[in-house]
Amino acid sequence: MFDIKVGQTVCITQSSWYRGQPTKPLSGVIEKIGRKYFYVSLDNRSKSIKFSKEDFYAIDTFPSCRIWESSQDYYKHIKYTRISQALRQAFEVYSDNKYTLEQLEQIVHILNLRVEED
User: Fold this and answer.
1) Which residues in the chain come in under a pLDDT of 70?
2) How far apart are alpha carbons 78 and 16 in whole angstroms?
3) Among positive and negative, which fits the CA dihedral 101, 105, 110, 112?
4) Positive or negative CA dihedral for 48, 25, 27, 8?
5) pTM
6) Which end of the chain is more exposed for a tag (fewer CB within 10 A), N or C?
7) DSSP string of 16-78?
8) What gap in Å lies between CA 73 and CA 94, rounded to an integer?
9) Do the beta carbons of residue 81 and residue 87 sit within 8 Å?
10) How far, CA to CA in Å, does 81 sit from each of 23, 50, 62, 88?
11) Residue 116, exposed/middle/buried by CB under 10 A (0-12, 13-18, 19+)?
């Protein structure tokens, strides 16, 4: 979340993870800020999109849209999500990856994890 101001240019993305790919971000301008919601205009739409101030997700749109302060913030989020997914997959119970004890100890050290020892 970030501070919003009328006239501020923001990045808007549509949810598309069901297709497995992020969407290309669009540029919008904050037109109006209310108590619970704010409104963002896009060049190609005649009607503003209503967003929740609580979570920055659009209200009553399909697919759902989200606001980002910049496209760089959006792409950082995409990278974070992909790295998190890769780490989860690497350590799944049924993963084919086999790690040595030394490799696992290095990972524990890097992540600063506590491991119970007998």
Assistant:
1) 16-22, 62, 93-97
2) 12
3) positive
4) positive
5) 0.73
6) C
7) -GGGTSPPPPEEEEEEEE-SSEEEEEETT-SSPEEEETTT-BBSS-SS-EEEES-HHHHHHHH
8) 33
9) no
10) 14, 26, 22, 11
11) exposed
The order of strands in the sheet holding 9-14 is 49-52, 37-42, 26-33, 9-14, 65-68
The tokens for 73 are 């913030």
Distance separating alpha carbons of residues 76 and 70, to the nearest angstrom = 10
What's the full length of the chain, in residues?
A: 118
Token pair, residue 41, equals: 């205009």
In the three-class reduction of DSSP (H, G, I as helix; E, B as strand; rest coil), residue 106 is classed as: helix
